[in-house]
Amino acid sequence: MPTDPRAVLTRPAPDPDVTVAYGEHPDQIADLRRPASAGPPRPLVVVVHGGFWRAEYDRRHTGPLAAALAALGHPVAQLEYRRTGQPGGGWPGTPTDVLAGVSALPRLAAAALPGQVAPGPPLLVGHSAGGHLALYTAAHAPDAVGGVLALAPVTDLAEAYRLDLDSGAVAALLGGGPADVPERYAAADPRSLTPLRPRTVVMHGTLDQQVPVGMSRAYVAAGQAAGADIRLVELPECEHFGLIDPESAAWPQITTALRSLHEDQ
């Protein structure tokens, strides 16, 4: 029987080494993992989880991904943030939390993991809605981001609203549709925020049923036309969750893309 691709969402992972807070709310925190191997300090990798910005999905489902990245020698932070369905979640709390967390985590991680975090801005790995939040952060605070690996990101909020992805997820995040709150879409929609300054790799499975691959194709084409350093890697036979599963066939390409961002810093 084929393995359920969603199994990664509940797969056990080793506990993080330490948890740090970047704000006062209980969800303004991040779990840190030390690199498993000794070596020179590397840039922090900040994992921004998905789940269509909803409260029922938290950072814990990225445990296998984060543990695998730490095993490859990266210092890793699993960023948490307020989500829709929680006090302070939605607009503007959700994207503001991620922006604040990404800005604070290099300092917090360097203090908690001495000698293991290289100076400079972190690399962001964002999946699905977390991909949107990583791109949002790179657009609004480019100097705070060393590069972005966006995995099946939601790159067009207006189109996601039109398609009613995850039964109203975008409306829940922004408080309505593009006609209701156009200024929020202008500020939050990656399609309105090109070109990005940080180097960006977008990866998307062609079998994705949660976020259409055409969204990434259009976004990357627009970014390239505007002069951004951005490329798309399409993964045949890969669906939405294989991108965060270290046991999937896609995993070697994920690590290769992250390595390319690290080497170019």
TrEMBL record:
GO terms for molecular function: hydrolase activity. InterPro entries: AB_hydrolase_fold, BD-FAE-like_dom, GDXG_lipolytic_enzyme. Coiled coil: none annotated. Keywords: Hydrolase. Residues 31-218 form the BD-FAE-like domain. Pfam families: BD-FAE. The keyword Nucleotide-binding does not apply. PANTHER family: AB HYDROLASE SUPERFAMILY PROTEIN C4A8.06C (PTHR48081). This is Alpha/beta hydrolase. It comes from Micromonospora craterilacus.
